[in-house]
Amino acid sequence: MSRTQTMLASLVALLVLVFALDIRDLAERAGTPIPGFPFAFGGAAMDNLLAVLAAVLAAGALGRGGGALHRRLGLGWHGARGPLLVLLATLPTWLLLAWQGTLASDLALLPLFWLALAFPFAEEVLYRGFGYVFVHRTLCWPRWLALGLQALAFGFIHWWSMGFGSGEALTVFAITGLGGLVMGVLDALDGDTIWSGLVFHVSLNASWSVFAVADDAAGGAWTIGVRLFSAALAIALLVWARRQRSSRTAGM
């Protein structure tokens, strides 16, 4: 790509990153509403499907000649070690929530599927797969810039969903933005694939759905603390695994 083409591609990528999850809201404001699916969580399911389609189409159009599409979106496989170590790192969050709380009274498989698996997967494809892996490896953004902007966009879309309010809404922006950065760093440490970040995202979302926690977004200082601990532990374990792999490679 020429410099001008790269700049235009980067602008398109940024627009997709910021607005893909709100395509239906934008369409409604433009007078052409897009209906959701006719089942529970159908509106959010359509939002997430459109976001993934936008990311896939943008990556296909902007990254021609940049290798297989699934790898451009971080969907290649770098081995199970990273995701398993990340899963282990989330265990303290599960244990503390089980100790401090109780099983959610409204726990059901369908909401758990959407909130703890399907929606996190769509968000990982959009924000970490497209917003980090694609723009870093295909559009050649500096790693720090790609990681930072996708995290800001991830926090922004959650803030937007709460009407750009203050107080709790800003807490959500901060928590989700930091979470987006953590998941991006995990993906970077695991060979620029989305699976380690996805495991972190799915595990913490599942724990939040399985156990009853405080009603406020922060969930109390202790829940923030244990999530930060799990994040730090996950990063530390992947750094350790990466050094172990490098040592073995150097010793061959």
Automatic annotation (TrEMBL):
One Pfam family in the UniProt entry: Rce1-like
Residues annotated as domain CAAX prenyl protease 2/Lysostaphin resistance protein A-like: 108-206
Keywords (A to Z) from UniProt: Hydrolase, Membrane, Metalloprotease, Protease, Transmembrane, Transmembrane helix
Signal peptide start and end residues: none
Coiled-coil residue spans: none
Transmembrane helix is among the record's keywords: yes
Molecular-function annotations in GO: metallopeptidase activity
InterPro entries in alphabetical order: Rce1/LyrA-like_dom
Keyword Transmembrane helix: yes
Regions that span the bilayer: 39-63, 84-102, 108-127, 139-160, 166-186, 193-214, 220-241
Name this polypeptide is given: CPBP family intramembrane metalloprotease
